[in-house]
Fold:
Amino acid sequence: MRDYPLVTPKFEREPDNAPGAFYLIKDVCILCALPPETAPDNITWDAEFQLGGCAGCPNHCRVERQPQTPDEVALIIEAMKGSCIEAIRYCGTDPEILAQFASRNWKDCVMRSDRIAYAVLFIFLSIILTLYCFPRVQNKLVQNRDRKTMAVLSNLAVAIEKVRTTNLSYPSNDAQLNNLLGGPLPNSPWGTKIEYKSGPGFFKLLTTSPYPMWTVFEYDSRNAPTGLVSYPF
Structure:
C-alpha cells in the first residue's frame, strides 16, 4: 500500500502502538476483546501481556502492525466500527480510507473530548440534582400527606363531637363508634390505622406515619380548640 503523510493525532496513542496511521487512544481500552478478535493480524493485546509480564491479564489492546492490504484495512475499520468506546483512531490521509469514513458518516472517527466533557457534566449534574432536589421533593410530598392526615383527624373529631351532642357522651369503644358513624374508621393518608380511645368526658384519635418519617398525629378533645398535634418519635 502507498504511504501517505500523517496528521497530528487528536489523542495520545498507547506507547506500544506501532508507528503509523491507525492507533489506540491511551488509557481508553476497556478490554472488551472485540478489536483483537475482529482484526487479529493487526490489533493485539499490549506488549507486556504478550511477554507474560502481567500475571495473565492484559492492560489494553494496541495496533501491533499497521495494515498492509485492503483486506487488513477493512478489518481494522470494522473493528473501529464495533468499538463501543471508539478507542481506535486514524490520523492518516489516504483518500480511499478517508472515503470509507465519509461513506459511514464518520467525520473524524474520534471520540471527541467535548463529548467526554458533556458526559462527565451530565453525570455531575445528575448527582447534584439527586442530592439537592430529591430530598426537597420528598419533603414536599411528606408535608402534603401530613396535612391531609391532620385534616382527616380533624374531620373525624368534628363527627365524633356531633355524636356526643346527640348521645350526650362519647362512644366507649370502636364498635360503638363504628355503629354511630355508619362504618369503620378510615386509614390515614399514610395508610396507617387510626386508633380511637375514650375516657370520662374525652376522646383521643391517634395515628402515625410510617418509617422513615415516623410521626405521631394525635387529637385530644381535652386540648380543644388546639386539639390536634403532631410530633416525631
